[in-house]
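Dear colleague,

Following up on Tuesday's group meeting, I ran the structure prediction for the two-component complex that the binding team flagged. I've pasted the input sequences exactly as they went in, so you can double-check that nothing got truncated or mislabelled along the way. The structure tokens for the whole assembly follow below. Feel free to forward this to whoever is handling the docking comparison.

Inputs:
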Amino acid sequence: MSSKLRILVPVKRVIDAAIRPRVNKAQTGVETQGVKFSINPFCDIALEEALRIRERTKASSLVEKVHAVSAGSSKSQETLRQALAKGADDSTLIDVGDANLEPLSVAKMLKKVAEEQNSNLIILGKQAIDNDQNQTGQMLAGLLKWPQATNASKVEIDEANSRVTVTREVDGGTETVSAPLPMVITTDLRLNEPRYASLPNIMKAKKKPLKVVKADDLGVDTASRMETLKVSEPPARQAGVIVESTDELIERLQKGGAL
Amino acid sequence: MAAVQTSKSLSRKGSEKWRSQHYRSFPTHDTFHFTMLRFSRTISGRANWARLASTLAYVEHAGGQATPGSLSAINAARQIQGSDEVTALVAGSNASEVANAIKKVSGLSKVLVAESGSYDHHMPETVAELLVANVKKHGFTHLVAGASSVGKNVLPRTAALLDVQAVSDISKVVSEDTFERPIYAGNAIATTKSNDSVKVITVRASTFDAAAEGSSEAAVEAAEDPSPEALAKWESEELTKSERPDLGTAQRVVSGGRGLKDKENFEKVMYPFADALGAAVGASRAAVDSGFADNSLQVGQTGKVVAPELYVAVGISGAIQHLAGMKDSKTIVAINKDAEAPIFQVADVGLVADLFEAVPDLTNKLKK
């Protein structure tokens, strides 16, 4: 490949996937006090893929750099340190304080960082498990006017022809698309199995670069376009019954009209 | 006659105010003339109001037919604007064929056709440009599509080009700018109001009925075609063939989990059970990750969201990510040997039993 890969990996700090979130009393959001946060699982997969591309193309030193970026409160530093411990080279924190960020604002900020880092491949998670939007990667690709391949389950880089081929998970099966660099890829669950950071690497990550910028420094307006009027618990289901036999199960379903 | 009187008196208050503001010097001696004028004003006033919301629905299609998810999106679009004035847009080299197939769908007043190979396979780079051009040309206030893998791929890109924040996977229309959508794997429902000039929305198919065919026929017109540059190339696809109903829209779904132990057991136990019920087959993430079933059968936050009449969970513990994909099902049945499994908390009917005995037994009894 004529040009080296400068991979940008956006990562998000979210409530840990194993925790069941509770709606707060004021019904303005979910309870975040004293709750465990982690890297969004799909972002973890995106980072892993960037690292694997580097490992796969070690012979030609194709990957020049893997840069991790996160937008959020100063606590997102932890997420970036984790990314650095796993193998990212350097990182940027876009510190927005407690502001609630929407995908469009994040995409605009990521565009600025991608330009600054001269990135030519951006790998993101397909969705964040908090807002479940599944938008940021597509928006970023649109703003940059780059091709996009979402829900990737396989990424192949053809160095000779400077093309990236991606197998995507779609309704009913898979689809394969290809595009020249630069491009945006979002990761699906089955792309890879993320690694754990080793203790020595966690220690080394503390010395790796973490640059902090503000949304204003990037010249991006982060004002919300959407208003959250209310956040509520989903309607509770009526308590069910436990039946003793398959006959009783069929009888219940017939009586309830389900069969 | 009495009915006319009533409707007149109901509209009087608004019209009086409107008249006092705009027609202060209007001659009121000709009562009959004035009444007629006021009446026509009221009608045109309503028409103007209806025109405030105008919706474009992007129609996803396969095999010359609109997908059921697209028809659900059209239904959601009708709810948004409270009228049958939805415009559909069909794109691709067989767009005319699809347009003819859907022009009778009730709720549609117009079908725009972009017949060009550039839009085949719903490639986001070209389709987003097409949607932007048509939203701008016709001044649509809303753009909707199903929250399928196509809708999720194309609409956010379109929204960014229009510089608006998209609204993903809505489960309810509250008003023309306010929508409900599940967040945190369905553990919370957010009511959100969009302040953008164009609302770009994907619609959760399982919570809206598909629009059916009506008696009238929508006009078919050529869409504005910006002939965008193709940035990516579609190479191939590999679709899972199945004779069973489509998972996303099936009335009955049977899903298997880790409890099936391996692929052979999954096929031996679940497929005959599905056939006995006329159901689609789904799977938990654990079952898919272990290779028991294809990825496209995964039900959950990261897979398909289903809401059938009957959902039978077999050997599935009920992790929150799985519940996100099925807990709006009308009747949920759980078959699991672990009485403490969380799936029993959402099940309407639970059977604590070894699935390798219970499911074949059920299959036999249902066949009779």
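Chain B touches chain A through 85 residues (CB under 8 Å).

Cheers,
M.
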